[in-house]
Design brief:
Elements lengths: L8 H13 L2 E2 H10 L21 H4 L1 H17 L6 E6 L5 H10 L3 H6 E6 L3 H10 L5 E4 L10 E6 L8 E6 L2 E9 L10 E5 L10 H4 L8 E4 L1 H17 L1 E10 L9 E4 L2 E3 L9 E3 L2 E2 H10 L3 E7 H7 L2 H10 L3 H15 L4 H4 E7 L18
Parallel strand pairs: 2-3, 2-5, 3-4, 5-10, 10-14
Antiparallel strand pairs: 1-7, 6-7, 6-9, 7-8, 10-16, 11-12, 11-13, 15-16
Helix pairs in contact: 4-5, 9-10, 12-13
This protein binds S-adenosyl-L-homocysteine (SAH).
């Protein structure tokens, strides 16, 4: 794939770096495109909603955040009502999920009083949006999970893990080679675009256990996200050391598989991954099986991943939609119905999106899960 669009500032920086030091990994390209302090995608704009590039579940309907808020209340009760406790959201975007969740928590006043809101967010721009979405609420922001206070904690993360950098590997006769991003010598014009290539030697198989067992054709691509695994393990370690729970919602697959899921989205349509870095959202599907393994090895129990549609139905989303519709105008009724369908419909977010829960070892399944859905290492 070659690109011949003019370079933007970030592309210029990346090109200089590749010229000086050689090709960079796909994970490094993705990390820079999303998180470069000055030009990264999330650093300077609000990408959500109709006017932005994509729409997430909390932006579709208030029911999503409300039900997750009630899930947290349930988890808090199961943990023995620790007071206070940390409610930590990873990558809160516009802050909508937290605002809807806290509103729902008001129906469980002791829980609402016990909550301390902590947001893990690396974009100063989005931190400001979150502050505006949570007026009158005492919020602390952090760059990393490690900075959260040492206390019982309930984590929520919606469409956070898909924004974490993935490594890609290309299958060759002698194993999996790390996929790299290089300058494309065939680009017309004076400014080369970027092109995918791969490392000349195979990656050590023992550092890629999930990929080692896959059968793949020559040239096939597989992914691995060490950063995502570290997050899942860090969550599990907190749950083990201070008690707690976590709910991870994202689009992804249940077990490691061959496939290139890295995608670029701009203005609600697909775009080229290697064009206009920092101006396009880059995501990869989440490998829930590997996340579950990381959580188990961090010392916690794990349930799922189950389809979002199943999870939200079990939490009673249809009854909630009915209750909202009973007090609504016809126009609002239509919006509630459309929102419900988008969240749980099998051809919309209901199947592709999945939900994984983490909790203390030897605890009962959290709300929305049954014991048969426990992950076993
Ligand atoms: N949860 C929100 C937004 C999802 S977009 C929603 O559902 O609407 C991803 C979010 O994660 C953004 O807020 C982005 O700035 C944040 N983010 C991405 N990578 C991050 C990282 N490594 N550390 C902290 N926040 C990150």
């Amino acid at each position: 794939m070659s690109a011949n669009t003019p370079r933007n500032d970030l592309a210029r920086l990346l090109a200089q770096r590749i010229e000086a030091d050689g090709p960079i990994s796909v994970a490094e390209y993705m990390a820079q495109a999303l998180g470069h302090p000055e030009f990264g995608y999330y650093m300077g704009k609000d990408p959500f909603g109709v006017a932005g590039d994509f729409t997430t579940a909390p932006e579709i309907s208030q029911m999503f955040g409300e039900l997750i808020g009630l899930w947290c209340a349930n988890a808090w009760l199961a943990l023995g009502k620790p007071t206070p406790f940390v409610l930590a959201e990873l990558g809160p975007g516009r802050g909508t999920l937290m605002a809807d969740g806290l509103r729902a928590l008001e129906t469980v006043p002791a829980c609402r009083t016990a909550v301390r809101v902590h947001l893990v967010e690396n974009s100063p721009f989005l931190r400001e949006r979150q502050r505006q979405a949570l007026p009158g609420i005492d919020v602390s922001w952090h760059d990393s999970i490690d900075d959260l206070p040492m206390a019982p904690v309930i984590f929520i993360a919606n469409e956070f893990f898909d924004a974490l950098p993935v490594e890609q590997f290309v299958h060759q006769n002698d194993g999996w080679h790390r996929r790299l991003v290089d300058l494309d010598p065939n680009t017309p014009g004076s400014e080369p675009g970027f092109v995918f290539t791969h490392a000349p030697t195979p990656h050590p198989a023992k550092s890629l256990p999930a990929l080692a067992s896959l059968t793949a054709e020559h040239g096939a691509i597989a992914e691995s996200s060490p950063v995502a695994q570290k997050f899942a393990e860090a969550i599990a370690r907190r749950v083990r050391s201070h008690t707690g729970a976590a709910l991870i919602v994202d689009y992804g697959y249940a077990t490691a598989a061959v496939g290139d899921t890295l995608q670029a989205v701009r203005q609600h349509g697909y775009a080229a991954v290697l064009e206009r870095p920092g101006e396009t959202d880059l995501t990869a599907h989440v490998d829930f099986g590997t996340l579950a393994k990381a959580a188990l090895s961090g010392g916690a129990a794990c349930w799922g991943a189950i389809p979002q549609g199943v999870f939200l139905r079990r939490l009673g989303i249809e009854a909630r939609a009915g209750a909202l519709a009973a007090k609504a105008t016809q126009e609002q009724k239509n919006a509630i119905e459309t929102g419900l369908e988008r969240l749980i419909g099998g051809d919309q977010m209901g199947t592709l999106f999945k939900v994984l829960a983490i909790g203390p070892r030897a605890s009962d399944p959290p709300a929305g899960f049954v014991s048969e859905e426990a992950s076993i290492s």
